[in-house]
Amino acid sequence: MNDCLFCKIIAGDIPSKKVWSDELCYAFYDIAPQAPTHVLIVPKTHIPSAAGINAENSGLVGHIFEVAAKLAVELGLENGWRVVTNVGEDGGQSVKHLHFHLLGGKKLSLEMA
Ligand code: AMP
Predict the structure, then answer these.
(1) Is the Cα torsion angle 47, 102, 71, 10 positive or negative in sign?
(2) Where are the alpha helices (DSSP H) in the chain?
(3) Catalytic residue among 38, 63, 97, 99
(4) What value, to the nearest 5°, has the Cα angle with vertex 76 and ends 24 and 68?
(5) Is residue 57 within 8 Å of 67, Cβ to Cβ?
(6) N or C, which terminus of the chain has less Cβ within 10 Å?
């Protein structure tokens, strides 16, 4: 996608602090962290949001959760962590490229809405 921020980050056209990269996904530090550790994990293919997950691409999600579990260990989140994905206007999604927030490094609030 030409004007997608995260596609540009994946392509290296916009700088990011890389945490992980493999053939399917890319992970980097969030520019405005909401927790002491705040990483975004994104598929390398452009999927607009979790609403676009289907039988053909859902394997990606399992892979991203595997990466999240690995990164949680590497980043020292042994006390716990959270994965969040926001969808659409009401879900608070600001970047229209599927991404999973990996948050940790403190006791996270239980507030959901
Ligand atoms: P969401 O609001 O769920 O769509 O999340 C988008 C996230 O992208 C926010 O947490 C932003 O802080 C983050 N973000 C926006 N621009 C950048 C950037 N250039 N590098 C890293 N994170 C970014």
Answers:
(1) positive
(2) 5-11, 59-74, 88-91
(3) 99
(4) 20
(5) no
(6) C
What is the arrangement of strands in the sheet containing 18-21, beginning at the earlier edge strand?
Answer: 18-21, 25-29, 37-43, 100-104, 81-84
Which is the closest atom of ligand 1 to the Cα of 96? Answer: 4
pLDDT in tens, 75-84: 999 999 999 9
Ligand 1 geometric centre to CA of 31 (Å): 6
Pair of tokens at residue 94: 């600001």
Confidence of residue 2 (pLDDT cuts 50, 70, 90): confident
Whether 46 is a known active-site residue: answer: no
Q: Is the CB of 30 under 6 A from ligand 1?
A: yes
Tell me the pLDDT tens digit for each residue of 28-80: 999 999 999 999 999 999 999 999 999 999 999 999 999 999 999 999 999 99
At a CB cut-off of 8 Å and minimum separation 6, what does 6 contact? 40, 42, 95, 97, 99
